[in-house]
Design brief:
heterodimer, A: 111 residues, mainly alpha, AhpD-like, 5 helices, 0% strand, extended, B: alpha/beta, TIM Barrel, 13 helices, 34% helix
């Protein structure tokens, strides 16, 4: 294998049941219940959240899968890009809010 | 421009086993009726769309002959069971006999639907340069149901699929139709739109997408329409070529197979219509027509309009192929949108 990530490998997701079928079955049931049905959130809203998380977690499999899922649940490219910006803004905010920790410690060091 | 040359239709050996899948799921699909005569008047079109299963374009010359038109009129006249005439192409309005055929069908009391691509109103005939600006008034005068492809309510996807500038022109054409009452509540003039994905994925749910289209077109352009039909792209001809080039044919077929829905299969359009080609041959649907999969009677004799027999046609075994997975995936797909 020349790369760590191969798009063809997405199809092998089901293979995680090898050596731990009961756990995988439980996971896939939970995953399907959470993402694959309309609930308090619509499937469209869930797909946009998943797309944002896919970017935040930098998962190329998930980005491919949820780009398609967003289109198949009716989102448009502007909505999808905004979802990615939410992930980006959250990550920037999370980084920046940690500067409070830096400032707190800085104050301790200034005697 | 990719793939503007006609692609020779060919029938592949079934690889994905549509009929086997029907058997396995206990689904039987005999014809139920023939209530719609769908006629593909011409492959000539002012547009060259990437998804077009007809491989239509400005250089195509195939037209239904005057004899063919006369025969279709006779079939409509003799068979009250056939209540609807569905005219398609290409751009059917570019057939020189279009207007007279529509008027004759209306005079027979038939419900006439035209698959109108919107832009032909403004582009006119690409070969003769004849103007087609009169079409909205002609449609309204004859109270034709207009069914228009608009791949998306935004420019990006629409132009990607149908060509640069098509979205803006389509908005202009819809304004002209709205001005005559098309799509306006209470007018009785029906304007339905057709959505199809721009790539190898399934349509979103029809009702939700229709609400999006209505909101966006009204808010941004002040446009109205009646209903939205979602249609799945068929893995044949020009779209298939694009899938192959992108290495997406196999994944797309896998997606269609995985989404097979017996409930959607029960509502496939071939059970209630027949499709007529420019040479008068009869097919079970427009997709079979483009693959040259002739409709046949119980004795495997090919059916044509020139020896049309209602009972023999109704008792035919519908011809299926792998592309039929396109009509049975998810919520289903037909010329009238989702089927399940």
């Amino acid at each position: 294998m020349s790369n760590y990530y191969e798009s063809e490998d997405l199809k092998k997701f089901g293979d995680i049941g090898q050596h731990a079928k009961k756990l995988a079955d439980g996971f896939f049931k939970y995953y399907g219940d959470v993402t694959g049905t309309d609930g308090a959130l619509t499937k469209r809203e869930k797909a946009l959240i998943a797309l944002a998380v896919s970017h935040a977690q930098k998962c190329p499999y998930c980005i491919d899968a949820y780009t398609t899922q967003c289109l198949e649940t009716g989102s448009n490219p502007e909505q999808m890009m905004e979802a990615v910006h939410i992930a980006a803004a959250m990550q920037a905010g999370i980084t920046l809010v940690h500067s409070v920790q830096m400032q707190n410690h800085l104050k301790k060091l200034v005697l | 421009m990719n793939a503007i040359l006609p692609i020779k239709a060919f029938q592949e050996k079934a690889r994905y086993g549509f009929e086997e899948r029907l058997r396995r799921d206990g689904v039987r699909l005999p014809p139920l009726s023939i209530d719609t005569l769908q006629v593909n008047l011409t492959k000539l079109c002012n547009q060259v769309c990437r998804h077009c299963h007809v491989d239509a374009g400005p250089h195509r010359k195939e037209m239904l002959s005057p004899e063919g038109i006369t025969k279709c009129r006779e079939i409509l006249e003799r068979h009250p069971q056939i209540t609807r005439l569905d005219l398609t192409g290409g751009a059917p309005e570019l057939h020189p006999g279009f207007d007279a055929f529509v008027e004759a069908a209306v005079a027979l009391g038939k419900h006439v639907m035209v698959r109108h691509n919107l832009t032909v109103q403004l582009d006119g005939n690409p070969q003769t340069k004849e103007s087609k600006e009169y079409l909205p008034a002609f449609f309204a005068r004859n109270r034709i149901e207009v069914i228009s492809s608009l791949p998306y309510y935004q420019e990006y996807f629409t132009d990607a699929q149908r060509g640069s500038g098509v979205f803006r022109k389509s908005m202009q054409a819809m304004q002209r139709l709205n001005a005559l009452g098309y799509g306006v509540a209470g007018s009785g003039l029906v304007l339905n739109l057709v959505y199809n994905p721009v790539g190898p994925y399934l349509p979103a749910a029809q009702a939700g997408l229709e609400a999006d289209y209505k909101r966006e077109l009204k808010d941004k352009f002040g446009l109205v329409f009646n209903g939205l039909y979602t249609i799945t792209n068929m893995p044949i001809n020009r779209f298939k070529l694009h899938l192959e080039k992108a290495g997406q044919l196999e994944p797309y077929m896998e997606k269609l197979l995985a989404a097979f829905n017996p409930a959607a299969a029960a509502g496939v359009m071939c059970r209630s219509l027949i499709s007529v080609g420019h040479d008068g041959r009869i097919y079970d649907c427009d997709f079979n027509q483009m693959l040259e999969m002739d409709a046949v009677d119980a004795k495997r004799k090919k059916l044509t309009i020139f020896d049309f027999d209602f009972g023999r046609t109704l008792r035919r075994p519908i011809q299926f192929g792998d592309h039929c997975f396109g009509c049975t995936a998810g919520a289903g797909s037909s010329c009238g949108g989702a089927t399940a």
